[in-house]
Specification:
The structure is a single chain. This protein is α/β, with parallel strands linked by helices. It has a single domain, classed as NADH:ubiquinone oxidoreductase Nqo5 subunit (Beta Polymerase, domain 2). Helices cover about 25% and strands about 25% of the residues. The chain has a five-stranded mixed β-sheet with strand order 1-2-5-4-3. Helix 3 crosses helix 4. The longest helix is centred in the C-terminal third of the chain and has 12 residues. About 25% of the residues are buried.
Length: about 190
């Protein structure tokens, strides 16, 4: 917890979401930032679902409105330790606050627990992130090789839409060919 709280100014740590997640999750809160009123909290991958539940169910937070879930590919950003990042955007109608919950996902094990049990609206967005980036959401109710999201029939059945060069790891990007990234259920 020292690294997340040491880097964040006191006024950011005083915000209810930052304070409560820091208290409940401890050192699993990796970073807290606030840019122009946009609060972003980065948590360890193992705390992903617990942090989302806290945001939604804690009476002081009440982030019940799911807005978006997306994946970010940091292939050309060597400053990021992990290639992928999954970002959840939620809103509290009662407090009128937004928050972004983020977690890093390694390229070698691009898996993350699903948030569908917490936010039902995450269903389609997780399928989209799987289709576009190959991030597998474990426990997802309908993550299959014939997902009905953004892909055409020609790109389905186990392949992501990422361009051929983007499916490569950073270290072997120049000599890589497209590889399937489907869950084992296909």
């Amino acid at each position: 917890m020292a690294s997340a709280t040491a880097a964040a100014p006191p006024e950011v740590l005083a915000k209810p979401a930052a304070r409560i997640l820091s208290e409940k999750l401890g050192d699993r809160v990796l970073a807290i930032s606030d840019f122009r009123g946009d609060l972003a909290i980065t948590v360890a991958r193992g705390a992903w679902v617990e942090a989302a539940r806290l945001l939604k169910n804690h009476p002081e937070l009440d982030y019940k409105l799911f807005l978006d879930l997306c994946a970010v590919d940091h292939l050309d950003r060597p400053g990021h330790a992990e290639r992928f990042e999954v970002v959840l955007h939620v809103y509290s109608v009662s407090t009128k606050h937004h928050v972004r919950l983020k977690t890093a996902v390694p390229e070698s094990d691009a898996k993350l627990p699903t948030l569908v049990q917490v936010y039902r609206g995450a269903n389609w967005f997780e399928r989209e992130a799987w289709d576009l980036y190959g991030v597998v959401f474990e426990g997802h109710p309908n993550l299959s090789c014939c997902s009905r999201t953004t892909t055409s029939w020609a790109t389905r059945c186990g392949r992501t839409i990422r361009p051929q060069s983007a499916t490569c790891s950073r270290s072997r990007r120049s000599s890589c060919s497209r590889s399937p990234r489907a869950p084992s259920t296909c």
